[in-house]
Amino acid sequence: MVLMPTSRPYHHGDLRAALLRSAERTLREKGSGALSLRELARDIGVSHAAPGRHFKDKQALLDALALDGYERMNQALATAADHPDQTFEERVTALARAYLGFAVDNPELLELMFARKHDPDSSAQLAAAVDRSLGSFTRMIADGQERGEIVQGDPERITTVAAASLHGLAALIAGCALDAQETLAGLDGHVHLLLHGLRPRRATPSAAPRHP
User: Can you state the angle between helices 58-81 and 107-117, rounded to 10 degrees?
Assistant: First the structure.
């Protein structure tokens, strides 16, 4: 008796979520160049045609991965920013810690997120998610200005400076120039320098030396 080969199932519960999980694992372990819809189908045990129900091609898969990354990061940023009782510096530090924590845990995904956001063919949904991520910082800057806790000026320009500083830390960690845990442990000091600048502080009258 000859047994016919068992065909792979076409359906897989939440197939889209399963594909994204498998794709992110491949991205982390092998890079975006190793991503293939056919290989992902084989990995989760469905027919090679099944992924086409959710992603028309590899580029659509990369966009979905980037969008999922932004949505997760935005949730972390929103949770960190939701502490109006804290001082401005404490709130900025919490937001910075949430961003840097995401970057440390997901360096390959963050690189893909930044690459896709600059692609002219990226979707409007992805562009909106990018705007929301920067919006968390911009709203906090504008709120600090209203309270007199930060210098006046274009909130978006100030946000760019702050975001560039934090992304610089993430890039140095990804490049092994900085230790992740040491950087996170010293993040309070980094934010303090970011907010107060590098110029020497003038001595207060009470701290001035006394002369006989």
Answer: 110
**Tokens standing for residue 39:** 């290989």
Q: Which of 82, 64, 76, 136 is nearest to 104 (CA)?
A: 76
What own/partner pairs with CB < 8 Å and gap ≥ 24 does 181-189 have?
Answer: 183/100, 184/97, 184/100, 184/101, 184/104, 187/93, 187/96, 187/97, 187/100, 188/93
Beta-carbon contacts of residue 57 (< 8 Å; ≥ 6 apart): 37
| Residue-wise burial string across 44-79, b where 16 or more C-beta atoms lie within 10 A, e elsewhere | eebeeebbeebbeebeebbbbbbbbbbeebbebbee
- Residue 61: closest CA among 5, 111, 22: 22
For 112, residues 6+ apart whose C-beta sits below 8 A from its C-beta are: 27, 32, 62, 65, 66, 69
Q: Compute the distance between CA of residue 156 and CA of residue 37 in angstroms, rounded to an integer.
A: 39
pLDDT in tens, 50-87: 888 888 899 899 999 999 999 999 999 999 988 888 89
Helix axes 15-30, 58-81, angle to 10 degrees: 90
